[in-house]
Design goal:
The complex is a heterodimer of chains A (399) and B (611). Chain A is α+β, with helices and mostly antiparallel strands and 399 residues long. In chain A, 28% of the residues lie in helices and 15% in strands. Chain A has helices at residues 2-22, 29-32, 49-52, 65-68, 70-78, 87-91, 101-104, 114-117, 160-163, 174-178, 187-190, 203-208, 211-215, 285-289, 318-321, 365-372, 376-390, and strands spanning 133-134, 147-148, 151-152, 154-155, 221-229, 249-257, 263-266, 271-284, 296-304, 356-357, 360-361, 397-398. In chain A, the strands form three sheets. In chain A, strands 5, 6, 7, 8, 9, 10 and 11 form a seven-stranded mixed sheet that branches. In chain A, strands 1-4 form a two-stranded antiparallel ribbon. Chain A has a two-stranded antiparallel ribbon with strand order 2-3. The longest helix of chain A has 21 residues, at 2-22. The mean pLDDT of chain A is 92. Chain B is of the alpha+beta class and 611 residues long. In chain B, the strands form eight sheets. Chain B has a five-stranded antiparallel sheet. Residues 1-21 of chain B have low confidence and may be disordered. Classes of the chains: A alpha+beta (399), B alpha+beta (611). β12 (397-398) of chain A pairs parallel with β24 (549-552) of chain B.
Chain lengths: 399, 611
């Protein structure tokens, strides 16, 4: 598989050089005469008329997720929009797609680097994780270390594809994005499950699981996203939180984690990582200080998604088969966080009750029970797995 | 607990001769008419406070008072409380809560390293646990960053100095630190109109012979945060949410930290307070000067619950000078001669735990409530072969607070308050942090050779900014046990649950062995949360496994403590071969060492040859 990755990486690099070079010999007018705008032929406002002369059809990217952001808008409308109709404009427009150069204009017209994608795909949003970055806590005590584009991060294990030098575009081609697809390649377009791997020999795994259900090594998870509204900026004095996009708001969270993500069922009916997106709360500080409501639970929504944290390995068997909390079926006896006592409106983040998956569903308890029962087949595979592992662990250790 | 009846008074305005019989002639009483009595035994203002009770002028009356508002402060305690309570005073002067010797030493080890001297808050002569005289140097003379960090940060919780500025952590100095509790804002709230609302005083003038959990919580809320964990509180990410009345919430405490709720310790849920387990010798010392708190502490879980093979020990009270008789005088039910008192790990009598009717009972010292102690000796769950090396709280801790990455910066261009010297001096410290978590928590061998939870202690990265702003040290990791490495410390979180961790939680999750958040890849275990200073070392662990080879890259503090070895890791993980079928600790196969060859016998081969 290594040679294939090298070929892909080489191909990507070659294309990137070509992209920059391809425009050098062109007369200015071939881009700048188009669409009536001499200054910005790549602007969304004229549907990138200067670019699409050659790159036909790519203006359709503006009609899809990155251009429209309809999913995010819809979420804001049904959550924070109920209390502040201007919430979207105040907090969510920094990633607005304005034209082709947003991604392709990094030091000349060329294919976007990972860093170019991460200008928007940062923080809690997929893409930041690809380079091994997880959001830090919002309190200024935790806002430390290296920052990229003003965003600090916890150093995590980067995706194996990133470590191999692959850019986002290797799997997310321009044509796929223009067509409204999430990606141009799925895992199995490049990788065939190796049947020497025990987990791959279990038919249910290959039939019912997304590859990344096992191979996502970690995922940023935000449990309880709070937007605090300050109508009077002086009231922020006691909240030592990271300043946000808008002076009227500060963002915080009840709990952040970045371990192996919970699992649910995605729209394709396959087991997939899921994460809160978002378990949202809203407090209008001024109203709260006048005995008004606070910590209003606006949504308790999860999304099935693909964390870009792929590794060759994965969790051990019991990480799924003996871990009901991972399917939001946490028994009360194992509960750590007492959300009810904190007035959070949920019994537990790891309990399905009161929550939903916006693009899929949770695994039902009966199915989990079947999955977690120690059948002879499970036991056999489990013992084999540990035997294989332990036979290769040395007794001595390095000091 | 008359031993605690230290004659202390907090308030600055009491004066002499104001006994119960001559109150009308005392100017103390005429000004502080409604001030609470300290206790029925403490009837004379002047005995504790000094001052002139005949003088009608306030200044004159107060001029000769001891210790300003607090006659129990260490500068005065030998003339006030210690005058009558000599035994207690001699113990308190060498208790680790006064000397802070361990704290100072640990900071030294994190920064410049030990220099062969023994430092304490005030220095002085004492006796070590073997009875040999020792002399310590005052921390004021520790003229380096270690000394300064202690004096500017950590000394706030030393019982020798008061702290009226920290909301939620306010406490007096000296005996009053525990026996005249301050409230969150250090404000007097008693009946005396003269003192009402004044800051820097105890909540009332009535003495608390038996301190409640809140008193302990005033100091034990940083570092290991045991008083918080015990009560089911967590100062996790300082997110300040959910808000409370438009302020940070749900519960606020010192340092603008917010506390959320977690499952409390099972003992707290039962209504037990800190002093119900901890003896006065744990807290006030036993007269010897210990190097660390874990050496001074004399109690263990096994005292009341028994060990795997040994039942709790008891000793009958036969002497009229038995400490338990004296100490229990303030309890709801004082113990009496002839009672069989349970013994601490150091072989001394508890004053509130006794054996009666084939049962071990613990009396709540303040509440009088009787708690039946469950003895686990001989039960199959507690006689698992190989578990003999486990501390009880390895399995019974519900959570264990872990603070990863403590980035401490020292700015020579700024100034900060030196709480020992009592003056502002050049140089200020500030801290930032990486990540905090509760579960899972790593295990390693502690100083007793037993497997115990460990927590970062500390992962200090030191940055020193010179006066001109240049950095003479940047994210420096100090040397420990001979090499540059971070440290974990054995730790009991005080967040125990009745229900222990299940077998698979530890045996199936290498995070418990010290690998941190991870994935398993072939015969390697790769951490996913990585240290900024190295691409190969997890931040939240101290072990890596690469191609089957286990390496340790952080130290465990304390003598003889260490991470698990490769053989121990392998042995722990090997239990997984049995767990799918033998998933209960009471399973007979766990009574003796596991024979993994059994997997090759006919029965197992048949079972494992299925589809």
């Amino acid at each position: 598989m290594r040679w294939m990755i090298l070929v892909i990486v080489g191909f990507c690099l070659a294309l990137n050089l070509d992209a920059a070079a391809a425009h050098v010999g062109l007369p200015c007018g071939s881009c700048h005469r188009q669409g009536g705008s001499a200054s910005d032929p790549a602007a969304r406002s004229n549907r990138a008329a200067g670019c699409v002369v050659c790159h036909r059809g790519f203006e359709r990217i503006f009609d899809h997720a990155m251009g429209q952001r309809s999913g995010e808008k819809s979420f804001v409308q049904r959550s924070y929009g109920r209390f502040d109709s201007g919430f979207w404009d105040k907090n969510c427009t920094s990633c607005h797609l304005k034209g082709c150069l947003d991604c392709h204009g990094e030091g000349g017209v060329k294919k976007p680097s990972v860093a170019a994608c991460q200008v928007c795909h940062n923080g809690y949003y997929t893409g930041w994780d690809y380079s091994g970055r997880a959001p830090r806590e919002d309190n200024m005590r935790y806002q430390r270390g290296i920052a990229v584009n003003g965003e600090t991060f916890l150093k995590m294990l980067p995706d194996v594809h990133y470590s191999a030098g692959m850019t986002c575009g290797a799997c997310h081609s321009m044509s796929s994005l223009a067509e409204g697809k999430k990606s141009s390649k799925g895992c199995r377009d490049c990788h065939m499950p190796d049947l020497k791997v025990l987990e791959h020999r279990i038919p249910a795994h290959l039939q019912r699981l997304e590859c990344y259900a096992c191979h996502s090594s970690w995922a940023p998870q935000e449990y309880g996203t709070f937007f605090l509204r300050f109508r009077d900026g002086r009231m922020k004095d006691d909240f030592d939180l990271k300043p946000g996009a808008n002076a009227e708001y500060l963002r915080s969270a009840y709990l952040k984690k970045q371990d192996a993500p919970p699992l649910g069922i995605n729209a394709a009916g396959r087991v997939s990582p899921i994460r809160p997106m978002f378990i949202s709360y809203y407090t209008d500080i001024m109203r709260a200080r006048n005995n008004g409501p606070e910590n209003i639970l606006l949504a308790a929504e999860w999304r099935a998604y693909f964390p870009h944290t792929v590794q060759r390995g994965g969790v051990t068997c019991e990480g799924c088969h003996d871990n009901p909390a991972r399917f939001l079926l946490e028994p009360e006896s194992r509960r750590i966080y007492n959300l009810e006592k904190d007035g959070m409106g949920l019994e537990s983040f790891w309990l399905q009750r009161g929550q939903r998956v916006s693009n899929g569903s949770f695994m039902d308890a009966a199915r989990y029970l079947r999955m977690s029962s120690k059948t002879p087949a499970y036991t056999k595979a489990y013992v084999e797995k540990w035997k294989n592992f332990l036979n290769r662990v040395e007794n001595s250790s390095r000091p | 607990m008359r031993l605690c009846a230290l004659t202390i008074a907090m308030l600055a305005f009491l004066a002499s001769s104001c006994t119960l019989t001559d109150r009308s002639r005392s100017t103390c009483i005429s000004c502080h008419a409604d001030l609470e009595h300290v206790s029925p035994a403490h009837t004379n203002c002047v005995d504790c406070h000094g001052g002139d009770p005949q003088a009608r002028d306030k200044e004159k009356s107060h001029a000769s008072m001891r210790g300003s508002a607090n006659p129990s402060s260490p500068e005065e305690w030998d003339k006030s409380c210690g005058k009558c309570h000599r035994y207690q005073l001699e113990r308190v002067t060498s208790t680790i809560m006064q000397t802070n010797e361990g704290m100072i030493r640990n900071i030294q080890l994190t920064w410049e390293g030990a220099d062969g001297k023994q430092y304490t808050t005030t220095g002085g002569k004492a006796f070590d646990p073997s009875g040999k005289p020792v002399e310590s140097v005052p921390v004021e003379d520790l003229d380096n960053l270690s000394g300064e960090l202690y004096r500017k940060f950590c000394s706030r919780c030393h019982i020798g100095s008061s702290n009226a500025e920290s909301y939620g952590s306010a406490h007096a100095s000296g005996c009053a630190a525990c026996h005249f509790p301050w409230n969150d804002t250090a404000t007097y709230e008693g009946s005396d109109k003269t003192m009402k609302g004044r800051a820097g005083h105890s909540a009332t003038h009535a003495m608390t012979p038996l301190p409640d959990t809140q008193v302990c919580s005033r100091c034990h809320n940083r570092s290991g945060r045991i008083a918080f964990s015990y009560q089911g509180l967590y100062d996790g990410n300082n997110g300040l949410v959910p808000t409370s009345g438009g302020e940070g919430g749900p519960v606020m405490t010192s340092g603008a930290r917010n506390l959320t709720h977690i499952a409390p310790d099972v003992h707290f849920s039962a209504g037990m307070e800190c002093i119900d387990c901890h003896t006065s010798r744990d807290v006030m010392g036993d007269g010897f000067a210990y190097r660390n708190m874990y050496l001074q502490t004399e109690i263990a879980c096994e005292d009341c619950h028994g060990g795997a093979a040994e039942l709790p020990r008891y000793r009958e009270i036969t002497r009229e000078n038995d400490e338990a008789l004296r100490e229990s005088r303030s309890y709801k039910q004082p113990v009496t001669s002839g009672m069989r008192m349970i013994q601490t790990a150091k072989g001394r009598n508890y004053s509130n735990v006794f054996y009666k009717d084939n049962t071990i009972w613990l009396q709540g010292k303040r509440s009088g409530k009787l708690h039946r102690s469950k003895v686990i000796t001989g039960t199959p769950e507690h006689t698992v072969a190989g578990h003999g090396r486990l501390e009880c709280y390895s399995c019974h801790s519900r959570t264990s607070v872990q603070c990863y990455g403590c980035h401490t910066r020292y700015d020579k261009g700024k100034s900060g308050m030196d709480f020992i010297k009592g003056e502002e001096t050049a140089g200020a410290f500030s801290e930032t942090e990486d990540y905090r978590m509760l579960y899972p928590f790593p295990l390693a061998l502690n100083q007793r050779g037993r497997i115990s939870p460990v927590t970062p202690g500390c992962q200090t990265f030191v940055t020193v900014a010179e006066a001109d702003g240049s950095l003479s040290k940047s994210e420096y990791v100090s040397r420990f046990k001979g090499k540059q490495q971070l440290r974990f410390a054995p730790f009991y979180s005080h967040n125990s649950g009745k229900k222990a961790l299940v077998c698979v939680e530890c045996h199936g999750n290498p995070a418990f062995l010290g690998f941190g958040q991870h994935i398993v890849e072939g015969n390697s275990i790769k951490g996913t949360l990585i240290c900024e200073r190295s691409d190969s070392k997890p931040l939240d662990g101290f072990l890596t496994m690469q191609n089957g080879r286990v390496s340790a890259y952080s130290a465990i503090t304390r003598e003889n403590a260490r991470p698990l070895s490769g053989a121990e890791v392998k042995r722990t993980l090997s239990v997984n071969l049995c767990l799918p079928c033998h998933d209960k600790a009471r399973d007979p196969i766990y009574r003796k060492g596991i024979n993994h060859r059994a997997l090759d016998d006919t029965r197992h081969r048949r079972l494992l040859s299925g589809p």
